[in-house]
Specification:
Layout (H helix, E strand, L loop, with lengths): L6 H17 L1 E2 L1 H8 L3 H14 L4 E4 L4 E4 L11 H10 L24 H13 L3 E5 L8 E12 L4 E7 L4 E6 L3 E6 L15 H4 L1 E8 L7 H7 L7 E6 H10 L2 E2 L13 E3 L20
Helix pairs in contact: 1-3, 1-5, 2-3
Length: 289
Amino acid sequence: MTSELSGYQKELLAHIEFIGRFYGVVSRADLVKRFDISEASATRTFQLYNSIAPDNLIYRPNIRRYEWQDNASPVIEVSINKCLSTLTDGFGDSFAHATDKPFAVKNSLFHVNLDILAGITRAIKRKYPISINYLSKSSPLGAKRQIVPHSIADSGLRWHVRAFDRKRNEFRDFVINRVSSLDPCKSDEILTHEERAADDEWNTIVELELQPHPRLSEIAPMIEFEYQMVSGILKKKVRQALAGYLLDSWNIDASPDASLSGEHVMLHLRNAEELKFKNKVLAPGAGHC
C-alpha cells in the first residue's frame, strides 16, 4: 500500500515512524511542529498510518501520545545513515531514501542494526534499563547483561552506547553491533548512581592540543592549513569518555616524546603527559607513557 502514496505522504509517515520507533512515543504535535500542518491534517495522517500498520502504534490517553510497540514492524524504508545523522544532529532534510544519486559517500565496514539501535534509543528517551545479549572477547558467543543506557556516540569507527553496566557496577561503552538481542525492562527502576548525571567520565570535558608531528617539520604548514590550526595548534574539546576513540581514529601519536613513525601518523598530542583518562590506552603510542 505504501507504493501508492505520494512522496509527501511518505515523508509524513516516515516522521511518525521515526519518532515512534526511536523515541518510543509520538504525537500529532510532532507532525504539526515538523511540517507546519494543521491538527486536522496531523490526525488524518495518523489515521492513514494506522490503516497501513494497525499494530505498530497504540494511543495512550493518559499521556496523549501514541506508543510504539516493541513487536512493531516498520513499513517505511529509511536510510540508515540518515537515521544516525538525525539522532545526532536533529532533523533536517528527508531521512527517507533519496531518489537522486549522491555525490558524497561515507565508507563503513558495516551498518548498524536499526532494530537494536531503536530499542536502545527508546530506552534512553523513556528512561528504563534493557537486557542485552552482548558479544565480547571474553564471551564471543554472547552473555546476558543488564544496562542502563544514556547516550549513543560515533567513535569514528563504530557506534557505541554509553551505559551503566549493572554486572560491573560502572559506566562502560558497548559496541552496538555486538548486541545480538535486546529486551526492555520497563518496570525496573533506574537508581540515581546509574543516571547520566553520575557518569563523571562522560560529563568531564578534556582539551586535546594537537600539533603537526615533530618529524614532519617540512610539511607542517600544509598540516596546519588542513586542520585549520591556530599558531600551529588545534585545540579540540571532547568528552573524556570519548577522547581515546578520537585519538585512535585520527591516528594521533599520544606518546610524550612523539616517538611514533609512519605516513598515517601526521598529528601529535602535545599535552600527552598532562592528560590522564581511562581509555587513553586506545591511542597510538599511549603505551609509551
